[in-house]
Amino acid sequence: MAVRDYFSAADLTAVKEATREAESRTSGEFVCVIVERSDGFEDARWRAAALGSLIGGLLAAYGFYALEAWEPAFFIWPAVMPFAGMAVGWLAAIAVPPIERELAGGEALRSRVHNRAAAAFVDESVFRTRDRTGILIFVSLFERRVEILCDEGVRDKVPGEAWLGITRVLAAALGDGRGGAALTAAIKACGDVVEEAGLERREDDVNELPDEPRVGDE
To answer: Which domain holds residue 133?
Structure first.
């Protein structure tokens, strides 16, 4: 599902306003990046194709031996059915996201979203703030995972565990179709964490990074 099919224009506007509000009371610079997916997971599709090929071969064997299908036309089954099953498996992984996610595996989902988030941290210049207080909220829809990455000025004040509850709630909401309101709430919660850590807005603070959410569809 494309990002703009999942998040409406009103949702993205609300995210922008939530970012602005969080920055109005803290020295944090919040950047929200939303992508359709973090990886193509072709390895998962090949697993689906291999499984489909196996099932196709078993069906061919069943046709031969269980149904006693010995007519000449049926002798092409062992050659055709595995390839047909391979194609069906590949297409099923593409068409049914839960199949692809399951075959990719939790560790692959986690690591590839993390790597994409780390790249976004650099690409969006989250590290380029005066006090190194950039905070990336990275949302990957296909994987239903959320990463929060912070620059050193925030890491020194806020332990990594402080973000876990926020990411878990938001990730669960993505699966339930409640991502718009949940993302806005997550940004507010991130602002609360930063404020409670004592990173309050200074009188000479300026808005160093754009407040609009960055949207990447693939």
So the answer is: 3-39+105-216
